[in-house]
Amino acid sequence: MQPILKTKFGRIFLSDSLQLMRDHIKDESVDLIVTSPPFGLVRKKDYGNVDADKYVQWFWPFAREFYRILKPSGSFVLDIGGSWTPGQPTRSLYHFELLMMLCREANFHLAQEFYWWNPAKLPTPAEWVTVRRIRVKDAVNTVFWLSKTPWPKATNRRVLAPYSDSMKDLLKFGYKAKLRPSGHDISDKFQRDNGAAIPPNLLAIPNTESNSNYLRYCKEIGVKPHSARFPAQLPEFFVRMLTDTDDVVFDPFAGSCVTGEVCERLERNWICSELLEDYVKGAVGRFKVDSKSNGRKTDPIFYKVYSSSSLWNGAGRGLFDDLLPQDGGRKRLTNTYRPKNADGTRKVKDKKAKYRRPAKSKSKAH
Ligand SMILES: C[S@@+](CC[C@H](N)C(=O)[O-])C[C@H]1O[C@@H](n2cnc3c(N)ncnc32)[C@H](O)[C@@H]1O
Hints:
Elements: E1 5-6, E2 10-14, H1 17-24, E3 30-35, H2 55-69, E4 70-80, H3 94-104, E5 109-117, H4 126-131, E6 140-147, H5 165-173, E7 178-179, E8 185-186, E9 202-204, H6 213-221, H7 233-242, E10 248-251, H8 258-266, E11 269-274, H9 277-284
Parallel strand pairs: 2-11, 3-4, 3-10, 5-9, 10-11
Antiparallel strand pairs: 1-2, 4-6, 5-6, 7-8
Residues 16-18, 36-38, 47, 226, 228-230, 252-253, 255-256, 258, 273-276, 279 line the site of S-adenosylmethionine.
């Protein structure tokens, strides 16, 4: 099979990745599979998604091939978003079922689960989050790091982060070694300055690309950009942590070939496979310019997250003096939840709003 594009380090194939693996990828020849497959979504994307309830069955032949082509030291990193039950404010279990299948039947080990937090995520699904206000913003994707053995090659030294201000203070002013309430014995080794911090398994990466060579190229050639691209930092984190230069990285659901672009810059050999021609045509644009310029170094970004208790008041009622919807939000009400004005009155348009706390009795207490 001929690739659509061949670069110094990689190749893009317009192909069903299952076929490509079966016909062209040898046993135990790949160091890292990093990918974001079509999710089992309620609302379908342009490229067509598999229904959540059939997902595990659909994924099974891919899982078997992934296991076959990975080296024993290799890793399989799967970025998979959660999904909602159609018409109901509950979560689908499909990605957990998939994980169980991958570990119980396809023999992978779960090396670690990561959560990709997109700080720029819109509050969705709007019906449950912004209209009925009965769920919170769904802002993380699960990223499962799987491996063929319990000992995949890896180092966290390649993905360190700057020290936080509090850690810098601690290094400067010292820390009294003591037993924590949790029972952990914090020794004075924590005061050693190692130059940078070990990151957590929460990856804060906004998905806000709006001005890239890729988007410009798609516009130029008149193809629609891929609608579910992941940000380059996501595959980059795992390519850095789990592979060396000259290793082989495979993205079987490559879309716009972000993984290929990252690998070209980091000098890893790569293979991208994508089923739809328009996406491959757009992906080619990533390699028309010097791909080194695509990963310009940016200043470190530090996200501050408020403690979840920041706006809590003593009575557990929050900013809004309302009772909980006793029917769990089943009945759709609007205009009921409105903040108080500065003078303590409430802007309520809907006079019949159901869930307001009843006014306190005026009669004197006996
Ligand atoms: C979530 S998107 C991946 C987006 C990609 N990570 C990016 O950043 O552009 C999943 C992609 O898998 C492709 N796909 C689905 N089934 C496939 C198959 N059997 N072989 C190759 N690609 C497939 C879809 O066309 C879609 O573009």
